[in-house]
Amino acid sequence: MPVTDVTSLIDFDSLLDDEERLIRSTVRDFVDDKVRPHIAEWFEAGTSPRELAPELGRLGLLGMHLTGYGCTGSSAVAYGLACLELEAGDSGLRSLVSVQGSLAMYSIWKYGSEEQKQEWLPRMAAGEAIGCFGLTEPDFGSNPAGMRTRAERDGDDWVLTGNKMWITNGSAADIATVWARTEDGIRGFLVPRGTAGFTTSDVHRKLSLRASTTSELTLDGVRLPSSAMLPQARGLSGPLGCLNEARFGIVFGAMGAARDCLDATLAYAGARTQFDRPIAGFQLTQAKLADMSVELSKGLLLALHLGRLKDAGRLRPEQVSVGKLNNVREAMEIARTCRTILGGAGITLDYPVLRHANNLESVLTYEGTSEVHQLAIGQALTGISAYR
């Protein structure tokens, strides 16, 4: 009998505890009920439904790996499994949750004052307030140290001027964590929606992450009180620490997209007949399916291992780079190979594979390009930085 779950090939479930399996099943049911019936339409229309945020909040998925302030304090593995199931629905959905919890909320939770935490985190955990993370600039992506956005003192206030680009949740956000250069180095600031001089504009004509809001942030003399600064973040270690949290979710999430492609392709190959037999019965098709299932299995095991390390407090940044580099790269290859099995049907939104493939092109780039992660791994191996 054929498998009903491709992860059963390595008995992946046996490696999870009861709580982890419950969280995974709960998120999978949510995606099946609330996302799958509509995702093709959202992707085609280029819309990102904000009304999902309160539902994600009720499930405890927003900032779920944080503690206190309405957050559920789940394990790293549980958070990773949630990311996997969300991205099996669509990378845009996982991006919304990841940016909300691992970037916007985490920056406040890790570096904010108690007043900032009390003001924002409970509402963000409930999905009542949306956050974004303003680090990347039009001319400075992989090199955030070159950012031009500046924050200058004016009496007791700060005045911010600059632009941020490729910001997920940007125009939907009620609060933005914006990183800017000051006389004392790079610092983080909380910029509420509606602040004078703070505007957003969405990126259109996207071919990837279409069911996700991507924006440019413009800060034109934005005046903020001194209480808007994140007091515990100094230098690039602040934003880079947040990025490492988000990259961890991608390690799991990319495997969700890959699994969804493989599930859809197995079902199609078993039903599609050519030359009087299902195409699943041809050797070339089975070779592709076998290779993809092996890479999926390896990626799942790598993600789980890194999750266990994170829960033990022993996960290093270069290890996250190993996970993101491998799992996104293999997920892209799985999506493309699945498309070849689906033939012409694979280019339509009737099947998820090309949607996932297009989304993964963005996932490959954000939170550190594949080249940046190769160099991070190279530096760990050699002790030599190749960035300069």
Keywords summarizing the entry:
fatty-acyl-CoA binding, transit peptide, flavoprotein, oxidoreductase, alpha+beta, Butyryl-CoA Dehydrogenase, subunit A, domain 3, 388 residues, Acyl-CoA_Oxase/DH_mid-dom, Butyryl-CoA Dehydrogenase, subunit A, domain 2, globular, Butyryl-Coa Dehydrogenase, subunit A, domain 1, four-stranded antiparallel β-sheet, 3 domains, three-stranded mixed β-sheet, single chain
Describe this structure in words.
The protein is built from eleven helices and eleven strands. The termini are far apart. Helix 4 crosses helix 7 (237-271). By secondary structure, the protein is α+β, with helices and mostly antiparallel strands. It has helices spanning 18-35, 39-45, 52-58, 76-89, 91-111, 114-125, 237-271, 283-311, 317-342, 353-365, 370-382; strands at residues 67-68, 71-72, 131-134, 150-154, 157-168, 175-182, 185-192, 198-202, 214-225, 273-274, 277-278. It is globular and about 80 Å long. The longest helix has 35 residues, at 237-271. The strands form four sheets. The protein has a four-stranded antiparallel beta sheet, with helices on one face. Strands 3-6-7 form a three-stranded mixed beta sheet, with helices on one face. Strands 1-2 form a two-stranded antiparallel ribbon. It has three domains: 6-125, Butyryl-Coa Dehydrogenase, subunit A, domain 1 (Orthogonal Bundle), CATH 1.10.540.10; 131-228, Butyryl-CoA Dehydrogenase, subunit A, domain 2, CATH 2.40.110; 237-382, Butyryl-CoA Dehydrogenase, subunit A, domain 3 (Up-down Bundle), CATH 1.20.140.
